[in-house]
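My current task is to audit a protein record that another person submitted. What it holds is a sequence and that sequence's fold in token form. Thanks in advance; the entry in question is below.
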Amino acid sequence: MRSEDITKRRWTEKERQTLRRVAGRQAAMDDSRINLKDIPRLTDEQLAAMVRLRDARPRKVAVSVRLDARVLSWLRSKGEGHLTRINDILTNLMEAEQRTR
């Protein structure tokens, strides 16, 4: 199936009503009818590895920072996004400190 098949598909009136009803519930953030019983519980290891999802477009300010060569090497060894990783590490530290107050 291709995306064209979906966009050109002729919907029945019953299907349109169902889609409108579901879209209305989603827009109202009504998830009361979602069946979660078949979703397994997260393990302690999974919970410990979780990090908070941040805003998609946070406001950032350009700065210059000097790092130890071995710190920068370690960050780069983790793959692309080492500058974002620096921001995430500092954000996690800041939020942990705020929680302890």
